[in-house]
Amino acid sequence: MNQVVYANGILFGGVNSLLKVKGAEHQGIAWFGVKPFFQGPTLKGVVVRQGYVAVANEDVLFPSLGINAEGNGVIAFTLAGNDYFPSAAYVDVIQGFALPFVHVAGAGQDPDDGFTIYPAEGGNGVGRWGDYSAAVADGDRIWMANEYIPKACSGLTLPCRTSLANWGTFFSTVRPFGF
Predict the structure, then answer these.
(1) β-strands 10-21, 5-7: how paired?
(2) C-alpha R_g of the chain
(3) What are the C-alpha distances in Å from 112 to residues 36, 62, 163?
(4) Residue 120 backbone phi and psi in degrees, to 5
(5) pLDDT for 99-119, tens place per residue?
(6) Nearest-CA neighbor of 53 among 157, 133, 145, 165?
(7) Which residue has the higher pLDDT, 125 or 178?
(8) In the predicted model, is pLDDT for residue 51 greater than 70?
(9) d(CA 71, CA 164)
């Protein structure tokens, strides 16, 4: 789990989860909201919100929830698959419930080309992707940072890849519904 956020009396979090979407298994996101309370000296919690984020024929992974005091915000994640190079994406959350529409904040520009793909480098042919995302509410805005793959650099002083992988961080901000 990348992060947990406390908003409007609820702890929100999300994890990667293997989901079956239209008959095929893909990486998806399970998210939930837990309302904590004390029963005597014991801290307990009850799940009051939950759901999944999935895209047919694609993978969504490494979620972070940025939720404001009104329960509005986003679930930020990486979107990747046959139709998308690894991209920064999100879904809107309204009053603690996720909407079923995926927005691409930063479109990936190249395929994954990390060492984990190549058997000669110790890889198994499957790219090891994603370590993080982040989302945080700041007044009337939600700020996000997601992994994605930018266009290969040429003539720039900043590298777009390391010797072992190509990836980048896409920063974005949105106003949640209700503002």
Answers:
(1) antiparallel
(2) 18
(3) 40, 16, 13
(4) -65, -20
(5) 999 999 999 988 888 887 788
(6) 133
(7) 125
(8) yes
(9) 40
Contact 82, 58 (CB under 8 A): yes
- How many Cα neighbours within 13 Å face the side chain of 119? 1
Q: Hey, which residues does 138 pair with through a beta bridge?
A: 141
At residue 2, the pLDDT reads 76
Tell me which residue has tokens 């989302």: 135
The tens digit of pLDDT for each residue in 1-15 reads: 778 999 989 999 999
* Residue 88 located in a structural domain: yes
Residue in this structure with the two tokens 């929100």, named with its chain if needed: 12
Q: List residues bridging with 156 in a β-sheet.
A: none
Domain count, the chain: 1
Q: What number of residues does the chain have?
A: 179
Dist. CA 106–CA 77, nearest whole Å = 11
In a domain, 179, yes or no: no
Look up residue 19 and give its two tokens.
């989901």
Domain span holding position 88: 5-174
pTM above 0.85? Answer: yes
Let me know if 119 is exposed, middle or buried by CB neighbors in 10 A (0-12, 13-18, 19+): exposed
